[in-house]
């Protein structure tokens, strides 16, 4: 994986029949991953290994007994935590502020712990390893021990669980048998074994009985979509596991075609890193950046289900606290704002606010004359710049210097010596004189990022001065009224400006010094408290001290980080990273000076004109060539027939597509219909209605998406509303069974069925959009067209 090499797909899975009670929902047939028609990247079936099928009910009953024990322990721990929380709350709001703050901090800790214990209810236990030394190890969502500290369940992220994901017959890693335990609620519904030890197969049949199943992985893939992403913790594949557990340091790029689990892997990696490097990351935090708020909603249940609530999830547009970037603009305008040169433009715009006046400015004070001379201003500017501090902070030095020069002029006109303390009064008088203030402000204007960037757009001469590299056309495209709303592409520029302008942080720094003194004492105290309460297993003394000092219960690391523009994270995960502009990379890298990054994406799915078609071209300039790449090669989402045609379309359009193997084959997965142009929307809605009937299941699963270009959204939505599929004018709602979206908005999401309306129009906007649209379904892609189909279809 390291050194930008391609990983292979080493996991072999037995094609088996699924032992199940009451049974998973029926679904289209699947192609076993060992089928000869699948890609050569899937390792051939090892001949030494075979599945054993007998006595399933006994095995299920045996596993049920163990699963009951583990859930029993979970219930006990929940009960204990609830009791502790109630005890803390009972103490009420009395006592000294220190006592109250400690109580609040403990209440938050117990609440967090309880939330974690509640979140792991589903599929708490999902695996068992039978080891060469005849011991057994159960693998699950979190680690649990019994009251005597005997292990009951191994956290999936622990080193001891790694073999569950990686062991193969060729490299059994001390494992004789790997068992997938499938549960629904707290009931074991099936087991599936992979036997990695030949001797075991030749041994006692009774001991090995009851092992059958069609494969936990494929069963999971066949389940109806719910509109929200689920975790894959029970069926992580070896090539995915290697990425999830890759070392923390440096920048890791995860390239993979559609449906290869990039998002799933990114989320599981965030959870893994928090577990494996908790000391480091619990206080600095992990940031996860996604392409849109819709996407963040789509994934928002995954990390909590893995027992992690401390990750800050956001979009680039939301990275600057206090800036609401909900304006829209044409792609070509966003592309200009994303260019690397805009960093220079902002820098020049800042320097333009440090200006030597053309003429001397004369000011009269108490009948005496002082002059703000261009020479003095030039010298004071040069001296202040040499400090290399941000504009608003260096301004303090500039003003002090200028006032001193003006005071000298004033004093030289007096007929007597001025004592040092009275000179200070003269300086203060000069400072408060309106004309002096105006003259100094004109020379070195205090600035907010919003004013600086807003002026660039609304005052063409300022842009012309700051951006000589941009063509007149480009500059005209950037022009807009001063009160126009901010757009997502403005946010990196505002952050750049904030960085160069700085805030007057003198008070902050004094406070920080005082806080540092207090902190050592607080950490020592927190350590003592943890020793007494036994809370050290799930929180460090440093974090507890943060919470004592943090002003109350609300301030978790994630909350403090999200509210602070200058927060630097211990690790940043970026999904759909191929879309990021050069300026967006700058804002992100500022948040992770250690360059500990997981960068996830597919350069064939790029839709933004500011995005990348090559990782090297995108990342070499920003990471100076210091990054490693891992590839994902198996498409778990899209049926083979759909993936094949999407691949042909991508190739015809010249997209840099990764070679892919589809894990699933679904009969009749691709349906193409030509219809009259004036019937497109109505027919598409009818197809969606029929599809919904087919995929809807009793538990609320089953999702259908109608995808069309932005210009058709309204008419498709109206047709879908007429067909009773969605409320008229309703906003896109991921929880609804049917959604109407643009391909861009569908990025990263998936549905059971996609109805794609007029692919030629999608292609006209961007080939990446068409590739994205075609690769969203897990079961069926319906293509409806009036115009000729794009080549490759
Ligand atoms: N090991 C796995 N076990 C079970 N399901 C998996 C596994 N890997 C991926 N999946 C499923 O495959 C689907 C696609 O995963 P995901 O959305 O992470 O892919 P992606 O590479 O980010 O796709 P895209 O680039 O198209 O957005 C999801 O439903 C995910 O849960």
Note down, in words, how this protein is organized.
43% of the residues lie in helices and 14% in strands. Helix 14 crosses helix 15 (420-431). It has 793 residues and is of the alpha/beta class. The strands form five sheets. It has a six-stranded mixed beta sheet. The chain contains 30 helices and 21 strands. It binds adenosine-5'-triphosphate. Residues 217, 220-221, 232, 235-237, 240, 256, 258-264, 602, 605, 636-637, 748, 750, 775 line the site of adenosine-5'-triphosphate.
- State the helicity in percent bands: 40-55%
Structural class: alpha/beta
Strand content: 5-15%
The strand count comes to: 21
Main attributes?
nucleotide-binding; hydrolase; disordered N terminus; binds adenosine-5'-triphosphate; DNA_helicase_UvrD/REP; 793 residues; 30 helices; 6-stranded mixed beta sheet; P-loop_NTPase; single chain; UvrD-like_ATP-bd
Secondary structure: elements and pairs:
Blueprint: H1 56-90, H2 97-119, E1 125-131, E2 136-140, E3 144-145, E4 151-155, H3 162-166, E5 175-184, E6 187-195, H4 198-202, H5 216-222, H6 238-244, E7 251-256, H7 262-276, H8 278-284, E8 286-289, H9 293-299, H10 302-305, E9 311-314, H11 331-338, H12 341-351, E10 361-365, E11 368-372, H13 374-385, H14 391-412, H15 420-431, H16 434-443, H17 449-458, H18 460-466, H19 472-478, H20 490-501, H21 506-533, H22 541-549, H23 557-562, E12 571-574, H24 582-590, E13 597-601, H25 615-623, E14 628-632, E15 634-635, H26 640-652, E16 661-662, E17 670-674, H27 680-695, E18 704-707, H28 713-722, E19 738-741, E20 751-757, H29 759-765, H30 767-774, E21 777-785
Parallel strand pairs: 2-4, 7-13, 7-14, 8-9, 8-12, 12-13, 15-16, 17-21, 18-19, 18-20, 20-21
Antiparallel strand pairs: 1-2, 1-5, 3-4, 5-6, 10-11
Helix pairs in contact: 1-2, 2-22, 6-7, 7-8, 12-18, 12-20, 13-14, 14-15, 17-18, 17-20, 20-24, 21-22, 26-30, 27-28, 29-30
């Amino acid at each position: 994986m390291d050194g930008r090499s391609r990983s292979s797909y080493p996991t072999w899975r037995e094609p088996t029949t699924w032992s199940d009670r009451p049974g998973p929902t029926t679904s289209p047939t699947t192609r076993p991953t060992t089928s000869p028609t699948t890609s050569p990247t899937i390792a051939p079936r090892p001949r030494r290994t075979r599945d054993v099928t007998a006595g399933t009910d006994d095995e299920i009953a045996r596993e049920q007994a163990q699963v009951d024990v583990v859930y029993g322990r979970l219930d006990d721990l929940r009960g204990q935590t609830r009791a502790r929380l109630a005890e803390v709350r009972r103490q009420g709001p009395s006592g000294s502020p220190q006592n109250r703050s400690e109580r609040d901090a403990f209440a938050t800790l117990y609440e967090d712990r309880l939330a974690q214990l509640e979140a792991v209810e589903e599929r708490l236990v999902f695996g068992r390893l039978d080891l060469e030394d005849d011991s057994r190890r159960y693998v699950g969502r979190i680690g649990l021990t019994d009251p005597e500290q005997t292990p009951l369940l191994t956290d999936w992220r622990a080193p001891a669980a790694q073999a569950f994901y990686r062991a193969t017959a060729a490299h059994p890693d001390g494992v004789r048998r790997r068992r997938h335990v499938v549960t629904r609620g707290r009931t074991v519904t099936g087991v599936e074994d992979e036997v990695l030890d030949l001797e075991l197969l030749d041994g006692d049949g009774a001991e090995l009985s009851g092992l059958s199943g069609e494969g936990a992985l494929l069963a999971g893939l066949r389940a109806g979509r719910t509109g929200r992403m689920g975790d894959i913790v029970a069926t992580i594949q070896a090539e995915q596991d290697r990425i999830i557990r890759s070392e923390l340091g440096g920048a890791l790029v995860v390239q993979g075609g559609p449906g290869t689990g990039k998002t799933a892997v990114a989320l599981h990696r965030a959870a893994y890193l928090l577990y494996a490097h908790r000391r480091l990351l619990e206080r600095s935090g992990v940031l996860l950046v996604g392409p849109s708020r819709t996407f963040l909603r789509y994934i928002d249940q995954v990390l909590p289900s893995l027992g992690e609530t401390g990750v800050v999830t956001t979009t680039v547009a939301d990275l600057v606290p206090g800036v609401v970037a909900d304006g829209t603009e044409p792609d070509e305008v966003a592309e200009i704002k994303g260019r690397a040169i805009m960093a220079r433009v902002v820098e020049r715009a800042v320097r333009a606010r440090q200006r030597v006046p053309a003429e001397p400015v004369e000011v009269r004070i108490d009948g005496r004359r002082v002059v703000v001379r261009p020479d003095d201003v030039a010298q004071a500017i040069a001296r202040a710049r040499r400090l290399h501090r941000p504009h608003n902070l260096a301004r303090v030095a500039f003003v002090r210097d200028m006032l001193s020069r003006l005071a000298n002029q004033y004093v030289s006109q007096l007929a007597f010596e001025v004592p040092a303390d009275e000179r200070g009064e003269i300086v203060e008088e000069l400072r408060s004189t309106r004309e002096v203030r105006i003259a100094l402000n004109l020379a070195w204007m205090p600035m907010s990022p919003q004013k600086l960037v807003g002026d660039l757009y609304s005052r063409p001469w300022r842009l012309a001065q700051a951006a000589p590299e941009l063509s007149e056309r480009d500059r005209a495209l950037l022009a807009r009224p001063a009160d126009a709303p901010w757009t997502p592409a403005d946010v990196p520029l505002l952050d750049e400006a904030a960085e160069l302008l700085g805030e007057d942080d003198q008070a902050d720094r004094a406070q920080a010094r005082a806080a540092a003194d207090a902190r050592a004492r607080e950490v020592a105290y927190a350590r003592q408290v943890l020793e007494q309460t036994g809370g050290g297993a799930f929180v460090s003394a440093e974090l507890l001290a943060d919470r004592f000092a943090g002003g109350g219960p609300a301030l978790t690391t994630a909350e403090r980080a999200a509210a602070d523009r200058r927060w630097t994270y211990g690790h940043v995960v970026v999904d759909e990273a191929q879309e990021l502009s050069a300026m967006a990379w700058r804002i992100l890298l500022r948040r992770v000076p250690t360059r500990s990054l997981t960068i996830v994406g597919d350069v064939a799915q790029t839709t933004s004109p500011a995005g990348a078609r090559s990782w090297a071209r995108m990342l070499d300039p920003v990471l100076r060539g210091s990054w490693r790449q891992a590839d994902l090669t198996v498409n778990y989402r899209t049926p083979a027939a759909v993936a094949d045609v999407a691949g042909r379309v991508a190739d015809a359009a010249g997209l840099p597509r990764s070679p892919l193997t589809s894990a699933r084959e679904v009969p009749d997965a691709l349906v193409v219909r030509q219809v009259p142009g004036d019937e497109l929307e109505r027919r598409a809605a009818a197809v969606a209605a029929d599809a919904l009937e087919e995929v809807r299941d009793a538990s609320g699963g089953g999702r259908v998406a109608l995808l069309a270009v932005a210009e058709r959204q309204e008419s498709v939505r109206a047709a879908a509303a007429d067909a009773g599929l969605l409320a008229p004018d309703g906003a896109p709602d991921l929880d609804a069974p049917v959604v109407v979206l643009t391909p861009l908005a569908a990025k990263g999401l998936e549905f059971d069925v996609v109805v794609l309306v007029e692919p030629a129009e999608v292609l006209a906007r961007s080939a990446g959009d068409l590739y994205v649209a075609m690769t969203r379904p897990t079961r069926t892609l319906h293509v409806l067209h009036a115009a000729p189909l794009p080549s490759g279809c």
